Amino acid sequence: MTKAWKMLFSVLGALVLVVTLIVVVAIASVWAPDRPVEALKGRWAPPPSTFVSIAGMSVHLRDQGPRNDPLPIVLIHGTSASLHTWEGWAGELSVARRVISFDLPGFGLTGPAPDNNYSMAADVRFVGALLDALHIERCVLGGNSLGGYIAWETALAMPRRVEKLILVDASGYPRASTKVTIGFRIAAMPGVRNLFESILPRRVVEASVRSVYGDPSKVSEPLVDRYYELALREGNRHALGLVFAAMLKVDDSKRIAEVRQPTLILWGGRDRLIPPDQAERFHRDIAGSQLVMFDDLGHVPQEEDPARTVAAVKRFLDIPG
């Protein structure tokens, strides 16, 4: 072998080594294996958090306010969120009312459903089981995004248990998004999703959270930490793919007009995930409903501006102050 060839192979070998090192470093920088729930509880489940055994799961929930409230307010978060999204509301409402928030199966600290069933029927049964476990006969039921879908489906399935509805940028009609978060796009692609069960760049989570705020500058580092770390809860990333698959199999939008409970519809005018025209559809289809639009807020208005949005809730529920 000539000296020139030896030099060429030496250079190529060095290039391969450099590329390999770059790939290894890149993977290491985004390597994010599942974390056991016990490793996350200290930061994300301080009092008043508790864990209650429901439907074979240790469900993370917060039960705040007076226990003698005859009509508790039960709040359901959306996809990839957690009970923390309601803390601004809970702090204000629990002064006078009992407020219950919880992590749905597959999300937050509750983690995956034992049977991997994330159908709407399973979610509705879960809400019923939670009400039973907490000895709640009737409630005001509210939900954001997927949680709103679960809320109105529960109102139809258990009309005697739901006195009033609060729908916050709720889903239910065929999707008409003007923008889908990068996190949701990944979760909808099986091959890529499987890869992201072991890696998760924090910037992907940050971009997804920023995209659902009307004013992305409100997205803080601690907020991104919360979404990022709870996504790493053991089993949550795998469950998210199953949630998306289940969502594609159901369209009960024709039944929305059957809702009879007094209903408050709150919406962010800058919601690009479920655009404001969907709010108008809910308002038209649910007889007697009230619609309040917040022109400058996004898909999670209860989190982005809890003070303004909860004020509308207090008016709806006749809560002083």
What does the model show?
With 321 residues, the protein is of the alpha/beta class. The chain has a single domain, classed as 3-Layer(aba) Sandwich (Rossmann fold). The protein has 13 helices and 8 strands. The chain has helices at 3-30, 38-44, 87-93, 120-133, 146-157, 182-187, 190-195, 202-211, 221-231, 236-247, 276-285, 301-304, 306-316, and strands spanning 49-54, 57-64, 73-76, 99-102, 139-144, 162-168, 263-268, 290-294. It has an 8-stranded mixed β-sheet, sandwiched between helices. Helix 4 packs across helix 5 (146-157). It is globular and about 85 Å long. The termini are far apart. Residues 11-29 have low confidence and may be disordered.
Topology summary:
Blueprint: H1 3-30, H2 38-44, E1 49-54, E2 57-64, E3 73-76, H3 87-93, E4 99-102, H4 120-133, E5 139-144, H5 146-157, E6 162-168, H6 182-187, H7 190-195, H8 202-211, H9 221-231, H10 236-247, E7 263-268, H11 276-285, E8 290-294, H12 301-304, H13 306-316
Parallel strand pairs: 3-4, 3-5, 5-6, 6-7, 7-8
Antiparallel strand pairs: 1-2, 2-4
Give the helix proportion (percent range): 40-55%
Could you tell me the radius of gyration in angstroms? 22 Å
What is the topology, as strand order, of the major beta sheet? 1-2-4-3-5-6-7-8
What is the helix/strand order?
HHEEEHEHEHEHHHHHEHEHH
Total strands: 8
The share of residues in extended strands comes to 5-15%
Tell me about the largest β-sheet: 8 strands, mixed
Shape-level CATH architecture: 3-Layer(aba) Sandwich
The helix/strand class is alpha/beta
Number of domains: 1
The level-1 CATH class = Alpha Beta
